[in-house]
Model the fold of this input.
Amino acid sequence: MISESKCRRCEEEPGSDRAIRQILSECGDLDTALCSPALPAAFPISFVVASPARPANTKRCQGHRTPKGSGQLLSARGLFLLAILLVLACSLVSAQDFKLGASIRGFGFYALEDSPYQARRDTEFLIFRLVPEVELNKYVKIETHLMADVTSPPVSPATTLATGSTRTYLDLDRNLIDRNDVSSNAALDRLNVQIHTDAFQLVIGRQAITWGVNYFWPALDLFAPFAPGRIDRDYKPGVDAARLIVPVRAYSELQIIGGVLGPSTERDLALGALLRWNVRTVDFGFMGGSFHEDKVAGAFISANLAGTGWRGELSWTQSGDPRDWLINRGVFWRGSIGIDRQLTPGVTLIFETAWNQYGASDPRDYLLFVNSDRLRRGEINALGRYHSGISVNWRFHPLSTFGSTTLVGWDDQSVLWIPSFVWSTGNNSELLFGGQLGFGQEPGVTGLPQSEYGSTPITVFAAFKFYL
Done:
């Protein structure tokens, strides 16, 4: 058994990564200080850590418990949801314009080798999305995305290739089926009211928000960014916020956002602004604010020079999480630069390289970060510090495209390769085939990752998409 005094020492003693790693090793089981091994669905497949569940008995876990007064919070959320649904119902009667769209996507994954992170080699995933849009008049519109999914088995890291989720404040999801071999959930991924005028645009409710300009590792995007290896990017998870967009000149705008990016109004409150300024073929961006108790500031630049798109972004974070200060990550920088170019009429290229000062420079220190709260919520999608990614798409036939995505973790010399083939079977349907292959050091006997992408089993997949 591991004494509580030793676990407390793991939490309270600051020092270097090497010193903390030594402290953790003295505690016996290496995941003692992690409290909970569960990771969000938005996590890349190679990051999922399998370790037995255990009671959380340290102060570190208290920050993740339901806050006092949660019952009152849930009641307030329920009343807010009821008000929105009443507005939506009334709007259907008085709507000037009503559009109804839908999509259904199905994925099948099969791992060609055993993995400690999934009990079965096969995974099936089906998701249905209903998209009604109600336009009350030329100024007001209501956007709604109703989702329902079926997954077997209920928890599988393979699904992160195709979908993702994020923490939310409003309780807009329900579990329909909860069995050992299958689960089903329904949720509202979008539910917002949009007000458009010549002077401003205001969006209130659950919505998709994207800051930053890069593809794989956007340093400025704190609103449920896509995982670098995500193959299906049709829909970004929605967050609960109010967003005011004010045009300041041609192709330039100011965005002001206030929201709650999780279940707690204390820990997950967000208030920030982004100024986007255009000068000819160059866009500049400056952002700042408070997110999850962090103080964040950053900037980006995006330009088109000689037929090539150039992008760069840099962010500075002062963490409000005391656990980050214990591992010498109280203040850190992140950045990425990338290019995109159409090489031929049928071939496009995206290249990006990123620097993540929050990550570990020594793979032996991955333990310190694997259950970090900012990794769990998907804000950062890397354990190491230095990464590069390249994506090439070749449209060799009007109906067929071959794609190849390669991600490299330079700290541990690991590689993830995701080849894919897309066949457009009609104006509103397509088939997708592909796989993912991870190269690098495999997990140790404890199941903890020894490299960024070496934990990923060789997996093949097939999918279909149909849009109405």
Remarks:
- The radius of gyration is 22 Å.
- Confidence is low (pLDDT under 50) at residues 1-74.
- The CA atoms of residues 18 and 365 lie 8 Å apart.
- The first helix runs from residue 4 to 12.
